[in-house]
Design goal:
mainly beta; 13-stranded antiparallel β-sheet; 13 strands
Length: 262
């Protein structure tokens, strides 16, 4: 669920995107059914790629800008492989992040740092660490099974002009977040925002998902903000040049490709 609502973080919002049709769903849907519907409408394209502009804001408002390229390819209903390339600035150029996802297993994640000239696999214990100085963790960058959470429909609430389901999600095993509250748009089942609470139950950060564009029939949120409420930092993400079903090659999603040097 976390990757869906927070990459709804990086990989899902960046790479997989969301294919959604016009909705005529019953108002009597349970919280689980609403979340599952949103999950089921993910990853409809066989593959996708996009360019990313990422802004890292410090608590003092200082800004760092990064440019990335992202790719994803699906393998059946439950498996996917994703790659992020850091294109600029020079201090991160050549860094790569690879994820192999199977919803029935724990993700496999690798990062390549050119300065070290080696690929490092991210351990289970390291998934709580921040990803490349952003307000996203390695855990956020992976995928979680929708059945690993218990859901409660709290209320309906309007954000701007959009009416949303407000759902409380409690993990059956607390590892990184003690709960998540997510606002899911009623008209298209795209999340509008999500609040994340740390393992001590304290409000940690908020994700905002905006500027939904229809690209080849796929409703795609193209602006994402992650605001850390504890340290005052933020990560702002804009997606550009999104292309679906271009026929990506398998060799992109390998450790060998991470170290290709171009």
């Amino acid at each position: 669920m976390m990757a869906r609502y927070l990459g709804y973080t990086i990989f899902i919002m960046f790479i997989s995107m969301v294919t959604l049709t016009s909705s005529s769903y019953s108002a009597e849907m349970t919280a689980y059914q609403i979340v599952k519907k949103s999950e089921d409408l993910l990853d409809q394209a066989k593959d996708s790629k996009s360019d990313i502009t990422m802004i890292l804001l410090s608590s003092k408002g200082e800004k760092r800008v990064r440019h990335l390229s992202t790719f994803v390819k699906r393998y059946g209903d439950n498996n996917s492989k994703s790659m992020v390339f850091f294109d600029s600035p020079a201090d991160v150029r050549g860094t790569c992040f690879l994820v192999w996802t199977d919803v029935n297993k724990e993700d496999k994640q690798w990062i390549y740092l050119p300065a070290l000239q080696r690929v490092r696999q991210i351990s289970a214990g390291g998934k709580g660490e921040n990803f490349m100085g952003t307000e996203l963790t390695y855990f956020d960058m992976g995928s979680q099974n929708v059945d690993e959470y218990t859901y409660t429909l709290i209320k309906d609430e309007t954000i701007g002009t959009e009416t949303c389901y407000v759902i409380n999600a409690l993990p059956k095993k607390v590892e990184f977040y003690s709960r998540i509250v997510v606002w899911i748009r009623k008209d298209n089942f795209i999340p509008a925002k999500a609040d994340f609470y740390d393992t001590k139950g304290q409000y940690l950060k908020q994700g905002i998902f905006e500027n939904v564009k229809n690209i080849k029939g796929i409703n795609t949120p193209t602006h994402i903000e992650m605001h850390n409420k504890q340290n005052g930092k933020a990560t702002i993400i804009d997606l550009n040049n999104i292309v679906y079903d271009s026929g990506l090659k398998d060799d992109i999603f390998t450790e060998r490709y991470m170290t290709r040097g171009d």
